[in-house]
Every structure is written in structure tokens, then in C-alpha cells.
Amino acid sequence: MSNKKQNQLNEVTKSNDDKAMTTNNGVKVSEDENTLTVGERGPSLLEDFHFREKIMHFDHERIPERIVHARGFGAHGEFQVYKDLSEYTSADFLTQPNKTTPVFVRFSTVQGSKGSPDTVRDVRGFATKFYTDEGIFDLVGNDIPVFFIQDAIKFPDLIHAVKPEPHNEMPQGGSAHDTFWDFFAQNPETTHTTMWAMSDRGIPKNFRQIEGFGVHTFRLVNSQGQSHFVKFHWKPLHGLESLVWDEAQILHGKDVDFHRKDLYESIEKGDYPEWEFGIQVIRPEQEFDFDFDILDPTKIWPEDQVPVQKIGKMTLNQNVTNVFDETEQAAFHPGHIVPGIDFSNDPLLQGRLFSYTDTQISRLGGPNFNQIPINRPVNEVHNNQRDAMHQTNINKGQVAYHKNALNNNDPHTTAKEDGGYEHYQEKVQGHKIRQRSESFKDYYSQPKLYLNSLSKDEYDHTVDGFSFEIGMCNSIMVKQNAVNQLNKVDRELAERVAKNVGVEVPESNEEVDSNAKDSQLTMEKYDIPLPGHSVAVLINGNIDIETLKLYAQTFTENKLNYAFVGQHPKNISESFGITETFDTAHPTLFDSIIVLSDGSDILPSVEEFTELTYKHNKPLILNQNAAQALSKSNAKISLEAAGVFVSDRPQTISQAFNRARYWDR
Ligand code: HDE
């Protein structure tokens, strides 16, 4: 994190080291084990102020969780723009390549409550707070570039449909239930985003390897007042990866913290997650040049038509000191923008501009949430707002109004030329109506574009995603209606899902007649770098320390994470040993395995580990002994299959692990 925000946080960071315990009023505490009672076995006394204060504070430790995106994890970092973008914007942090802007990012799931598993099938929130010198810019985005609905007035309906059903509060952390799929079928604008969520994008491998999208169309405005329409993107420098659904489900139990742990540990180790910041730009005169409406948040701007320009880089390089104080109290808001950035008329964005401040008032207990350290801008704040719950400033002076003569009219306003925020002066005319624009009503072309652009494996996984989720519904009517919707996009998808969930294939083929593709929609466009890959080395029998050292050295050279997994924990040398056993380690927690055997029979746990790694299409390296023994065992694997390497050389990792999954196994 860069200095400015760090210094500000340091000022309020408290350590207990070498400190005497006190009450909140600063009185030193002499005893913290027993309440004040009359005699050893007598009743407790109300005058025990230390006890009452301690319990009272504890009773109020929790605050309401976020109504959506309750489950999340954050980290600090910094952002730097590559070049001066003053052609498009006057924003100081986008025009000064020498400047480092502190950021705080919170990743989240949407549906589940605060304690729900990380690896559920869901959209992921990707919210970034830029602490710029001109105030806070929050980019409150997701890892999927489109949203389920087009108008903010439908948000409560969407969320009521996807959240656990009210009569039994099930299911937790997922959309595989009747009300979501009923909403899907009755509200066709949901089709595009649902297509993404049912594909591999819905089950990301971790937070480091997701893309991020501002979703809405914003404006960039330059110092001459010229505006361009823009969409914001985050492109991960660690590639894009997903889980396999079976693996994700096992992880719900094996490690509910799978994603947050990965982020936390990567940062602790110094393997800092990084993204490039990108913009797609549409000139004002091009607004109506496309076969979609650029204000419709259920549409992408296909990158083959409007390429993403990479304009900067973000690095997350510091974990929080306290998750509640920072991550839980972080208050993001799409309405937090700075000079040089403005809104479009996207009706979903416009509604969000009300919701986020409103929700913080009940979640964070009043309108002064901006004074909480994580929410404070790094530049100074001066205005005439006063009082209210949890005021932590001491506001000096007699005057708290504008305009005034008593205080020289301070705090004074600032002209646009000197950095005052002025809204883009868009000319708007019309009748007051409640009506969806006709240009928003093509619900199916872009879902078809998405499906056409997937690889065969990605397409098959999407069929599986729909089949699981719709298959989990109880109502035959809901299942049939959902499949009828799919039939309006893609006949094959509808036929396969109908068969898998046991409903009728719709009579007529209503699919979108288009083979159009976009090259940037498949996840396979990214290479997967070796650093950060995690491998479990399974020790079957006695493997000499020199061999293990050789493997460890190769892993370290290539920045891999690794664990030696054996039957019992054992310190082989001072610096390393068998750190994990077959009881604590699990194949879903690693990206790949290497099996080293001394020629003895394969242990049942090694066999199980190997089979599951194989089933989840991950790379396997077997030494000659292990390969021989496994071929004689009952393990359900084929040594000839893709991604199974027989080798005694640690260097085989660079060949074996350059693909995350061998779908063609
Ligand atoms: Fe949100 N959303 N949202 N949302 N959203 C919230 O704000 C809301 C939408 C997103 O890590 C809430 O502080 C409405 C789109 C993220 O703290 C709430 C509408 C996108 C986060 C809220 C939307 C998002 C939220 C809940 C429709 C992607 C988590 C707690 C008009 C572009 C931020 C809170 C964090 C959180 C309302 C739609 C992303 C209730 C009314 C579209 C990443 O204010």
C-alpha cells in the first residue's frame, strides 16, 4: 500500500503490546477472571462496572451483514496509470503516470450469508476503492460483465428470488432452487447473466484469477468538457481459472475459506495479485452505431468490436490488520466518483446511486460512516455537515452554513477549472414515463454470442451447470419454463438440459439464428502462469531426502506452492518435511499432484487422492514406481490419458503444469 493511506490507518491502529488493560474510560483493571460477588459463592453485584461494560460491548459486536455480498474478503494495494489519459479525462489519478494511488479491494459472493462457503456457484463482487488525491472513486463491479436486470426497481425482486426461500431459509449460498429459476423464466432479461453464471465463470478458482467489470456504461470527461462513453475492466495477470463443480461442492465442506485463504496467503508470501485496468471507449457520435443499446447493463460491448485499452495496473500487496475494522466496515458506493468521471443514464446504475448510501445508514449505524478509517479519503474533508450518530470529528467554530460572512464564506466552493466537481451537462428532454426502451428488448442475441464463443468443453460445462441448477428445482412447471427460455437462445442447450432434468423438449426450435462469436469470451484466451501453482507431492513408502530436496528446489525456483503429503507428519530436515498427512490434505486443495513411490504397494489414500485429481482433470506426474504400482492397483485412471505424465524428473512440471485442466482426458 502506498504511504498516504497507510499513515492515515497507522494513526488509528492500536496495539496492546506492553499495555495495561483498562476500561473504556481509561481506568486500570485489576481482575478480569471473576465478576464481583458477595462472598465466593454469593450473588453478583450490579455495581461491577467492568463486567457490565465488557458484556454490554460484547452484546453489540455484530453489525447487520450486507443484504447482498455479505460474504467477502479484502486487501489493500496500489494503482498506477500507464500513461496520461487527459485526452479522455481530467481525473488526476488517470493522468499522472508517476502517481501511485492507494486502493482497497473487497471480493465477495452475492447470495450467501457471511459464513457461507467461498466456492458456491455465484457472481463474484469485485469492489475497488481508489483513494485519489481528489477524493474517493469506488468502482463497485462484478466478475461477470453483465447484470441480471435492466432497471433498479427490479433489484428487490431479483434478490428475493435468489436468496434462500423465506419459508425454510434454504438453500444457502446458491441459486439452485425454484424461486430463482421461476424468476429466470418469467423475466427474460436475466438470460444473458444467467448464461455466464452457469458457465465456468460462476465457479472461479480463486479471487486472483477473475476478471472484473464495472458493468455499467460510465462517462470519462476531459478538461474541455468532452465526454466519452466508457466501460471499465480488470484483466488478471495470473490468468483466468475455474473450479470443476464436483470439486467446488467438496470444497464447501473441506475448506469454506478456500478463496479468502488463497488471497490472504498469496499476499503474505509476497506473490501479489495483479490486474491490468482497461477501458473500452465509445465516442458520443457512435452511441447508436451498435445492435445493442449502450445503456443496457445486460449487454457487453464485444471486445472484437470495441477493444479494451490497458491503461494501468493494480497490485494487492497488503492484508488488512483487522477484518471487521477494515473489510466489514468498508462502505462502497458507485456514486463515489471524482472529477473526470461521470454517470450514464443506465437505469440500473441510476438506482444504485440511491441504494448504497441508504444501506450504510442501517448497516453502519448512521450517516457518519465516511469517518470510519477505511472509508476516509486521503485528502481533507470540509463541509457544513454536522452532528449525527458516531461523530468522531470535533468541528471547530461558530458557523456551519453556506453562504456566510462570519467565517469568510468558508468552507468555500471551487470552480471546475480548479478541481471542483461539475456534472456533465447532458441535454435531456422527454415525458415522465414508466417504460422500458424498445432498444433494451433483445434478450437472446448476446447469450447466443456467449455460447457460440465458448470452447466445446466450456459449452458442455454450461449444459451441466444448467442441468444441476434446474434439476434441483421441485416444480416441474418451473423446470419446463426455464428450459423453454433456453430454447429461445440455443436448441442444443435446451434439448440437453430438458433431457437431463426430465422435462419436454420444446416443440419448435426458436433459437437465435447466428454463428457470431467474440474472441474474448472464452476463458481459454489466457495462459496460466506457473508461479502460484500448488502441488501436493504424495509420498508412498520411503523416498530419500535428496530426491525430495531436488523437487523442493525446482518448486522454489518456479515459485510453486507445495506440500509433501505422507502418512505421518515428519521433519525430514530442519527446513522441510512431511507437513501434511492424508487426513489434513485433500486433492481439491491442490492444483496438481506428483506421486513418488519407492515401489511398494500403493496406499489406499494415495489411490483415492490420485483418482480424484484425475477426475477433476488436473495434471498428474507419477514417478516410474508409482506408475507401475498404480497400473496394478484398482485406481480408476488411465496412464495414457491427457495430463498424466510418467517421469522421475522434477523439471517435468513446466510441461505438465502449463495447462490448469486437461479437459480432453
Ligand atoms: Fe450492488 N449492492 N446493487 N450491484 N453490489 C450492494 O451495498 C444494489 C449491482 C455490488 O464489497 C449493497 O454496501 C442495487 C450491480 C458489489 O461491500 C446494496 C442494485 C453490481 C457489492 C446494493 C445493485 C453490483 C454490492 C449491499 C440494482 C455490479 C458489494 C451492501 C440497482 C456492477 C460491495 C452494500 C462490498 C453491494 C444494491 C446491482 C455490485 C444493497 C439496488 C449491477 C460488488 O446497496
Explain what you see:
Decomposes hydrogen peroxide into water and oxygen; serves to protect cells from the toxic effects of hydrogen peroxide. Residues 1-13 have a biased composition (Polar residues). Belongs to the catalase family. HPII subfamily. It catalyses: 2 H2O2 = O2 + 2 H2O. Residues 1-25 are annotated as: Disordered. This protein is an alpha/beta fold. Among the domains are: 72-147 and 203-375, Catalase HpII,  Chain A, domain 1 (Beta Barrel); 455-524, Catalase, four-helical domain (Hemocyanin, N-terminal domain, Up-down Bundle); 530-656, Rossmann fold (3-Layer(aba) Sandwich). It is built from 17 helices and 16 strands. The strands form two sheets. Strands 1, 2, 3, 4, 5, 6, 7, 8, 9 and 10 form a ten-stranded antiparallel β-sheet that branches. It has a six-stranded parallel β-sheet with strand order 13-12-11-14-15-16, sandwiched between helices. Helix 3 (155-162) runs antiparallel to helix 4 (178-186), helix 11 (456-471) packs across helix 13 (491-501) and helix 12 (476-486) runs antiparallel to helix 13. The radius of gyration is 28 Å and the shape is globular. The protein starts with a helix and ends in a 9-residue tail after the last helix. 41% of the residues are buried. The model has no long low-confidence stretch (mean pLDDT 96). The site of CIS-heme D hydroxychlorin gamma-spirolactone 17R, 18S (HDE) has 25 residues, from strand 2, strand 3, strand 4 and helix 9.
